[in-house]
Every structure is written in structure tokens, then in C-alpha cells.
Amino acid sequence: MLTTPQDSAPLCAAADPDVRPARFTPPANACDCHAHVFGPVDRYPYVADRTYTPPDASFEQYQQILQKLGLERGVIVQPSVLGTDNRATLDAVAAGGEQFRAVVVVNEDISAQELQAMYDAGARGVRINLLFRSNFRVDDLRRLATKLADANMHLQLLVDVSQFSELKATLGDLPVELVFDHMGHMPTTQSQAHAGFQDLLALVGDGKAWVKLSGSYRFTAETSAPYQDVTAVAQALISTNPERMVWASDWPHPHIPLTMPNDGDLLDMLALWAPDDSVRNRILVDNPSQLYGF
Fold it and tell me: Could you tell me if residue 16 is inside a domain?
């Protein structure tokens, strides 16, 4: 069932429109690997059973954000509030052209033909939400993973690795590349010795998994950027395998528990995590080019 914002779930805060540039100059073809577009709701309605209601955040607004940050490429990710109706996400990628890719949300029974059509429209991955409400169980992933491998698409996971038992044993033999949202949502209050985080590091070290260096405000114990307690988490991931890291803004930062950050501050955090220019350029350009086929 689809509904309009006033029917369910409170409205969340809008992104800061006064974005400042980063304090470093991103390289040519730098990519933001995780952003969303929302609205207008009369064209792209939200599902009734949702956690939040976002304000409109158009693709045109997002393009302006990228320009201010000095980024040239972007990946539009289907948010949970739009369910499996991927029109807003794919329409944005169609409007953006070859500098944009999509990650979509699908049902387990999707056909190979439907996946091929989405691939042709710019989709390079499918996102599964194992953190909030979801109609997927972990046991259901294998059949979908096989379809995605055949379609040359990856499986993106929204999951708290500290709450996921035997992560590597469960996911490590899936026949598809894995991408973890927001550094695996690893709470900074947990030790990095936690089995879930160690499993994530092992998957990354083996080249089986990619990680999005993003969403710090979703698992920090601090109240404002630069969320210093996230630095150790990010650096542990980067040092394990810098060739499997990508950076993302998570614009327009829907349903976050803290004060809305400035996107310039978020990009600056990457320079703290990866002070070496060559490593940072790999994270911003080379790795996204490989993962999303730019």
C-alpha cells in the first residue's frame, strides 16, 4: 500500500542547503557512492509501513550539492520509504546520464529480465535492509544472490554487524560481491575486537566485500562532526584493504539521530581517515569506477 506523508510517520529534517566545499580538492571523476532522492510525493508516493517521512529532496538539488563539493559522479540508492517502486531512483539516473548509477530494491522473486532492464537503466546493485523493517530474511538471500551474480550486480547490505551472528560464515560464500552500508553500522561504543566487526574486516581483507565510508552520524557516540570516535573504525577498514573502500555522503541524511551535518564537513572527514592523497583518490575515483562500472 502506498500513502502520502501526512498518513504515516513523522516528517524528518531537511539537509543543510548551505553546503561549503571541502578543505581539499577532490580529483577528477570523484564519486559520491550513496545518496537518495525524494519526491514529489504525488509522483513517487511512500509506502505506508515506514519509519520516517522525508521532505522533498530532488535530483536537481543533489546535483547542486555535488557541484559545491567538487564531485562529478554519484550513486542514487533506493530508500526504504519507496519500497520496491524504483521509479524515482532510476528516473534520477536517467536524467543524470553516464555520470550516475543506481542501487535498487527488489523482491526475491524478481525475474532475470527485470534485473536486466534495471541494469540497462543504470542499476549496478540491489539493496537489502536487514537493519530496519524488511521482508527479507537472511536465509532468503542465496537465491537472490545467484540472480544478481548472473546479472553482474552486487548485493548491498544495510546491517549492524555487531548484531549479526557469524557474518562471514553466513554471507562469505554467497556467489556475489557484497557492499556494506555505512561501515557496517558498527557502533563506536563496541570494541573493534567484536566478532561481527572482525568478520567484516575478514570479508574486506579477502576482497569479498566493499564498504561505504559513510553514515558516521548513525553509529557515533558523539553529537557533531567530525565524529572523532568514528576515525578508528574507518581507518581499520581502510588499512585492511583500501581497494575495497568507497566514500559516500548519504545525502540528504534522512532520519538521523543528530543535528544535521554540513556535507563539506562530511567530505573533510575522509581526509582525516585517509590523509594519503593516493589512497584517498583511489577511494573517490578508482574504486567506484570498478564497483559501479563508470
Answer: no
Q: What is the DSSP letter of 154?
A: E
Per-residue model confidence as pLDDT tens digits over 191-201:
999 999 999 99
The 3-state DSSP class for residue 191 equals coil
4-41 pLDDT, tens per residue? 444 568 899 999 999 999 999 999 999 999 999 999 99
Catalytic residues: 250
Beta-carbon contacts of 51 under 8 Å, excluding residues fewer than 6 positions away, are 9, 80, 81, 132, 133, 255
Q: For every residue of 250-270, which 3-state class applies, written as one string? A: CECCCCCCCCCCCHHHHHHHH
- Grid cell in block for residue 73: 559522479
13 part of a folded domain: no
How many domains does the chain fold into?
Answer: 1
Which of these, 165, 166, 172, lies nearest to 155 by C-alpha position? 172
pTM exceeds cut of 0.90: yes
Q: Residue 47 belongs to a domain with what CATH number?
A: 3.20.20.140
Classify residue 245: in a domain, yes or no.
Answer: yes
Lowest mean pLDDT among 69-73, 89-93, 161-165: 161-165
Contact 80, 53 (CB under 8 A): no
Q: What is the number of other CB atoms lying within 10 angstroms of the CB of residue 139? A: 8
Q: Show the DSSP H helices in 76-111 as ranges.
A: 87-96
Is 19 contained in some domain?
no
How far apart are the C-alpha atoms of 107 and 61, rounded to whole Å?
A: 29
Residue 137: give the domain boundaries.
2-7+32-292
Q: In what order do the strands lie in the sheet with 73-77?
A: 31-35, 73-77, 100-104, 123-129, 154-158, 178-180, 209-213, 245-247
C-beta separation of 202 from 236 below 8 A: no
